[in-house]
Amino acid sequence: MEHVAEHKAMFLLRGKGVSKGVVIGRAIIMDDADLEIPHYHISETEVEAECERLEHAIKCVYDELETLQRELPHDAPKELGPLLNVHSLLVSDPLLAHDCKVLIREHSYNAEWALSAQGQNLEQKFAAMEDVYLRERALDIRQVIELVINELLGGGNKPIEFAAKLSVASSTIVIARDITPADMVRMRTAQFAGFVTDVGGPTSHTAIVARSIGVPAVVGSVNARHMIHDHDLLIIDGETGGIVVNPSAEVLRFYQEKEQKLLADKSLLWNKRKLAPLSLDGEQVTVLGNIENPEEAEEVLKSGGQGIGLYRTEFLFMGNRDGLPTEDEQYDAYASVLKQMQGKPVTIRTLDIGSDKSLQGELSRAVNPALGLRAVRYCLAKPDMFMTQLKALLRAAVHGHLKILVPMVAHRHEIATVKKMLSEAANQLRQESKEFSEDYELGVMVEIPAMAVVIDMVLDDVDFVSIGTNDLIQYMLAIDRVDSDVADLFDPLHPAVLRIIAHVIKAGIKKKKPVSICGEMAGDSLYTRLLLGLGLREFSMTAKHIPEIKYIIRQSHVGLITSKVKKAIKKNPRIDLDGSGFIVEPSATQSS
Ligand code: PEP
Ligand code: MG
C-alpha cells in the first residue's frame, strides 16, 4: 500500500518488540476509552440480587470462552486454544465469585466495584512474584476481570464491531490497551498488519499469539493508545520495539525500502523452498520441521521440510481437558503425522512435561522444576502413563518411518529402562492382538551437559541423537530460559556451548550415528553457516524458518566454511558473527 508522508509532527515511542518484522500502516484504536467502572454502595435488600447479577455475568463470560474454544477454526494459531482455556479456568475459579461476594455482602459494593477491587488484590499478589512468567499472568487476571465487568455493563461485543471496521483496510495497525486471546479469535477474519499494546511483556499471551500468526508487534508501550490517533501513519519495528508516529518523508522512504526488501527476500525464499538443500560443493544436508500438533505437518511439507525432526507430544497432553489422552487418541495423532509424511522420517518425542510445561490442573511442587521431575524422569515415575504412550507409538509405526526420541536423558540406565519398556509394550500389544511394528529407530535428546560430555559412550545404545540447544544452553550456562532477567546471558556463541556441540557432532560422525539439532539455534539463520562448519548435517526447526535455512545452505561452500570454523574455534577466544552469520576476524573485532 502506498503511503504519503504528512505534515503532522513526527514522534517516536518505544515498547518491547516481541514479533519480528517492519510494518507501515494506519493506526486504528481499538478501545480509546478506559473501562469506566461504576462504584456505588447497594442497600441490604439488594445484596442477593447483586450476587446473582455477578454470577450471571461470570457464567456468560465462561460460556462465551467455551464457545470460542469449541468453535476454534482449524487454521487458528495453535496457542489460542490453551490461552482461552487459561481464561476459562480463571473466570470459573469458585474463589473469584466467592471473594467478590464477600465484598458485596460485607462492604455493600456493587458487583463491578467488587470485581475491580478483587482484581487489584490478585494483581498485587502476582506482581510480587519472583518468577517473571508468573508475574505476567497478572495481565490474564486483569483481562478476565475486565471481560466480566464489560459483561455487567452490557458492553456488547467490541472486538466484533471492531473487526468489521478492520476488514475494509488491509494495512492497519491495531492500537489497544491489551488484546485478549478471546479478542484475537473474534478478530481472526479481519485483516491487520501489526499491533501495539500499552501493556504486556515478551512472554505475555498477546506476544505469543503475535509470533504465532507472524505479525510484527510491540507491547508494553505505555500510553501508546493515548498518544496515537485513529488514522495516524505509523511504522512499527517488531524487533527493536520502535514506533514512529507520523514519519517524515525521509524516514518513511527509508522504512518503505526496508519493508520492500524484506518482502522481496521472503518471496524469493518461498519460490525456492522445494529445492534440495545441497551445498555449493555438493554436501547433502537435511532440513526438517518441528511441530506441536498433527495439523502442523502439512505446513512443514508446504514449506519444503524433508520430514519431522521434532514432534513435541506434550501439547496433546496439555490441551486435553478430560485427563490424559487415551492410547487410541495418541495413536490417531501419531499415525496422522506418519501418514501425512508418506515415508519421510517422523521423529516423535516422548512426553516432555514438567519445568515450563505442566499437565492440566497440575502444578509442579519441585523447588526448581527445571531440575526436577521432568521429561523422561517424569515418564519413568509414571510407568502406566508412559506405557500407554509407547504402545500408541508402536501401533503408529506401521504407517511410516518412525523415530522415537527420548528427552532429558542423563544416564545410560534411563535408555536401558526405556528399551525394556518398549519391548514390554510390544508384548502387551501382541497379547491384545493389535497391529504394531517394531521397525523404528530410537534416539535421545542431548540437552543435559553430562549426556553431551559422555556421548561417545552412549552412541552405541541408540540409533541417532538430537541436540536440544534450548535446554543444553540453559543447563551449560545456568540461565533459566524463562527468566527474562537473565535472558541476555543466554549465549549460543559461548565457547563452552560451541565446544560441546562440536564434540557431540564429531562423536556422531565417528560412530556413524546421525546427529541433528532441533533447538531454536537450528532455525536461526545467524548460526546456519557456523553449524555447517561444525559438521552438522541435519537441522530441525519451525516450518516458517525452513525456506530461509535451505536457501543459506544452498549458498554455502561447506568445505571452505569448515576449515574457517575449525581454525577460528582453535585460535579465537570467542567466535563472533556478522549479521549474515560469517565469522568476524578477531582483529576486526578488536579495532571496533
Ligand atoms: C530444546 O531443549 O532445545 C528442545 C528442542 O526442546 P524444548 O524446547 O521442547 O525443551
Ligand atoms: Mg528441551
TrEMBL record:
Question: Catalytic residues?
Answer: H205 (tele-phosphohistidine intermediate), C518 (proton donor)
List residues of the PEP-utilising enzyme mobile domain.
171-241
Q: Where does phosphoenolpyruvate bind?
A: R312, R349, N470, D471, R481
Principal localization?
cytoplasm
Q: Which PROSITE patterns is this protein grouped with?
A: PEP_ENZYMES_PHOS_SITE (PS00370)
- Role summary: General (non sugar-specific) component of the phosphoenolpyruvate-dependent sugar phosphotransferase system (sugar PTS). This major carbohydrate active-transport system catalyzes the phosphorylation of incoming sugar substrates concomitantly with their translocation across the cell membrane. Enzyme I transfers the phosphoryl group from phosphoenolpyruvate (PEP) to the phosphoryl carrier protein (HPr).
Tell me the protein's name. Answer: Phosphoenolpyruvate-protein phosphotransferase
UniProt source species: Oligella ureolytica
